[in-house]
Amino acid sequence: MAELKVSRGRRLPSESVDRDRGAVRTAGLLLIVLTAGAYLPSPLYPDYQRLFGYGDLVMTLLFATFALVSGPALLLCGAAADALGPRPLVRASVLLAAAGSLCFLLADSTAVLFAGRVGQASALGAATGAAQSLIARHRSRSARIGGPLLVSLAFAGGTALGPAVSGVLAQYVPGPLVTPFVLHLALLAWVWRRLGRAVPAAPRAIVRPCLARPSIPAPLRPVFCVSGLNGFLAWAVVGIYLALVPALLQRTLHSDNPALSGAVLAAVLGWSLLAQLAAVRWSAYVTQLVGVTALTASLVLLAATGATSLPATVGSALLAGAGHGLAFSGATTAVDARTPADRRAGVGSALHLLFYLGSGVPAVAVGLMTIRTPLPAAVGILSWTAAALGALALALTYGLGVSGRLNSRSSAASPASGVRASGSCRPRSGAVGPAGPGPWGA
Asked: Whole-model pTM above 0.85?
């Protein structure tokens, strides 16, 4: 048998594949653990409120802190990941998340809770663009689940796991305000070890000395704007239910059981995960159209019932979960397919900024409106407003799709274009979006 000779400094193909898989798995785990940590406090806020005696306005500000901090962190760290490589950013994200969990673990005042939220928001801001870039760089093009879908699954999975695990631990394990964060710190330590082995340092050739101002390439802007609106709506609708469900359960069932609240919130994101997996072969255009339609329908149902019926609210929440998964994954796939490889971290961070704002705005709006308006009325106003936004998003998505099909036919019919008509809508292996010259293409 002939010996296989490998020159110094070069890896065998199998070693390279294993290294790529390890980097992708570690980046996905990082996103899950960080997102779960950001949502760990959700079922615990009533306990903190009783412990520290703050009002609903402070609760609203705690929600708002995450969106206000994560926005600048996303834009700054996305550009930094493109300039310096992802490894420094993902390591910094673990340290920031650990600081956030320590604040909640040792909290003795409301100020420490705010510090914890700043740490959690900064951690996700630092990691989002870097992890997305890592997954895109090391993900095999022949994989059944493409990089953008894997990122959206990781976010939805972490969002579901956080409140579910925290609620169960708070209800059935001693130390309800301690145990969830001890577990999170242990998971962060495990991810830190994996990062050291699986995430390569950036080659000197791609490290740039200056940070570029985050910007969206001109050809990408129409798709970015429409997809960003769809993703914003998806997370805004989920944000409504994240803010609504605990209060509704307490009012309807006279129960403040954190395990029940966490389970309902996890079920919403569970439907999101199932919808994303079921639509893995759909085009980004169809995925977003169906998703936004489901989101709008759920909002109309919620507004019509006024959040006074528990079965109707839970049913609309599950419909919203499915719509969230489709609109969110379709948006990330459409944008990623048109983004230059060296701009993925910055563009991905800018897109996720819209998602984070969507998840934070409804909680803040509900909290502010309930100061002078009963909860059902506040939910109704917000739901009708969001439903109108959903109708606008549907119209824009459909219009961009029609425009893209017309442009594709025009390009295919032109001999000078060099594009064959038969190839204009052929999907890449493992990708959700179609390839070709249209705005939803790869």
From this structure: no
Of 258, 300, 267, the closest CA to residue 384 belongs to 300
Q: Which residues pair with 434 in a beta bridge?
A: 427
CA distances from 357 to 73, 238, 354 (A): 13, 12, 5
State residue 434 phi and psi, 5-degree precision. Answer: -80, 155
Q: What distance in Å separates the CA atoms of residue 272 and residue 84, rounded to the nearest whole number?
A: 33
Structure tokens that stand for 227 in this block: 């997809």
Q: Please report the pLDDT score of residue 100 as a whole number.
A: 96
DSSP string, 60-93: HHHHHHHHHHHHHHHHHHHHHHHHH-SHHHHHHH
Banded pLDDT at 343 (limits 50, 70, 90):
confident
pLDDT digits (tens, 9 = 90+) for 241-299: 776 666 666 666 666 677 777 777 778 888 998 999 898 889 989 999 999 999 999 99
Q: Is 229 helix (H, G, I), strand (E, B) or coil?
A: helix
pLDDT digits (tens, 9 = 90+) for 83-129: 777 888 899 999 999 999 999 999 999 999 999 999 999 999 888 88
C-alpha dihedral (114, 118, 124, 130), degrees to nearest 10? -170
Return the C-alpha torsion angle 206, 209, 210, 211, nearest 10.
50
Enumerate residues 6+ apart whose C-beta is below 8 A from 111: none
For residue 393, count other CB atoms closer than 10 A to its CB: 26
Nearest CA-CA partner of 296 in 379, 234, 253, 365? 234
pLDDT digits (tens, 9 = 90+) for 392-427: 999 999 988 877 665 655 555 554 444 433 333 333
Distance set, CA 68 to CA 21, 230, 358, 361 (Å): 34, 20, 12, 10
Whole-number Å distance between alpha carbons of 299 and 296: 5
One-letter identity of residue 182: V
Residue 13 and residue 296: Cα distance in Å, rounded? Answer: 48
